[in-house]
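Q: Could you fold this chain for me?
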Amino acid sequence: MNIAQRTVANVDETLASGSIFVPGGTFRMGSDRHYPEEAPSHRVSVDGFWIDRTPVTNRQFKAFVRATGYVTFAEVAPDPKDYPDALPHMIYAGSLTFTPPDHPVDLRDYSQWWTLLKGSNWRHPYGPKSNIKSLDDHPVVHVTHADALAYALWAGKDLPTEAEWEFAARGGLDGAEYAWGDEFVPGGVHQANTWQGHFPFENRCEDGHARTSPVRTYPPNGYGVFDMIGNVWEWTSDWWAPKHSADAKKACCIPQNPRGGVEHDSHDPSLPLSRIPRKVIKGGSHLCAPNYCRRYRPAARHAEPIDTSTSHLGFRCVTRPGRR
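A: Sure. Below is the predicted structure, expressed as structure tokens.
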């Protein structure tokens, strides 16, 4: 039996539970006030669906691996044929890991704080000498899109579309800047795990966390969903496009390309040889700061190659009517 054939009946009770129903509705998706890829703001309708209350945790992902023997992308050395742009010494098993400098750097050069670290993977989030023994309730990281989808299929679920994710993240606050309202830190109380200080060299940790935090650390939004903003970015099922379509759409359960295109439209033009397609990720992470990547908002979105895993990227699952 392969992973796709497994059903909820095969999953431990603690994994099958933990979802909450989000009623369908119409909302204003995107924003005209921030990054250009968020525009134009437009009306979108979604059907009701169940969504995990939290990102998938290390404990949950560990149960999946034990049950299936699954090996993640970061744990296997890539085939050089798939990466003609890469130098031979860069082909090894590992994952992008945040390695903060101790001084100001050019924010246009992400290589100043990201390292393709050999031995980094979901079991060893900060390199081969690290582990997750005390991180069971933290979001799993270093997972590619295929890794996230494999877990979802095993659990009898799916990955959310971008519209489903954003609708759930807003918690019923249509048009609000954040998942909790229009003030970033209301009353001086942090509502999400983000970066305080000058990214990437100064993290004041005013929210108490230098890296990921346990799920449910911060208050849930209006739908009772936790950690939709900050902590870790989350995969969606939509192919990337650099802007939204202005046309209203029904986005119940089919991954959409905002321009009506398909996988090949999502390729990064800066990598003409590799041609790795990209998916939309949402929510921002603990590395989002006021001076860099102000994407700790429901409308924010970013492109991520489907073969890329990082120390600040995870996922959560959805279930749609007819699948429960």
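A (continued): DSSP finds four helices and twelve strands in the chain.
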